[in-house]
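G., before I forget:
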Amino acid sequence: MIPLQSLAIHTMERDGERIEITISSRFENIELVQVIAEHLCENAGLDEDGSHWIGMAVREAVANAIKHGNKLDTRKKVNATFDLRGPELEIRIKDEGEGFDPEKVSDPLNPQNLMKTSGRGIFYMKTFMDHIEYSFNNGGGTMLLMTKNLAKGSGIASSKA
Amino acid sequence: MKATSRDVNGVEIIKLEGKITIGSGDSQLREVIGNALNNGKNKILLDMHGVTTIDSSGIGELVGSYTTVTNRGGKLKLLHLPDKLNELLHVTQLITVFEVYENEPEALASF
């Protein structure tokens, strides 16, 4: 197995640290990014559950970037950056896709949508993170910004639901 | 994902282990349920104890399996939900859809 250190760039800065990784659009690469997120959170002192839920949000974000953004084109990349400044974690997931209208994403809690087999990924991200926001580049490419204050604890889901 | 099946009094207990995630376990789950139905087994109890990771695709596949089995006149129920899967089903309100059991004899008696 390739050591993570050779895949991810880890930069220590005066006011925090940054980890960056770029993967090709294959589902089997999702876990690499998820594991980085979980380790970063655990190293920052978050408990295992809290780290797990942030890892899940990252998993969903990267899966969407690969499937809906890059449409499984392995020549296209997904880039993830993790910026940790004190307790504030900012995660950016970028793909090379054409973007979408976040307003048109249906609410999976609507009784009409409850039995749908897809459409829960963004909902899980919103549930596990403090804030998520999409931006779209005119020349193509989508960037998802997700933030979480780790000092607030795991902040899972059920407390927000 | 690994799936092992056994029949107990006409109920197919399918033990799932490992990951049910996009690109791997999700399609396998569909296959396992399809095979059971094709073999005439439509009372299905999924033992989730060994499921280590599930994502939104895996959850979607569980929902799809439930619908497929129900449409074929059968029943699909869940046994031994790990805590994190339980949380995921709660936040999406799918916990109201599935019958969930912690105890196998009780689950079997419910069919």
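The interface with chain A takes residues 21-24, 55-57, 59-61, 63-64, 66-67, 84, 87-88, 90-94, 97 of chain B (CB under 8 Å). The mean pLDDT of chain B is 96.

More on Monday.
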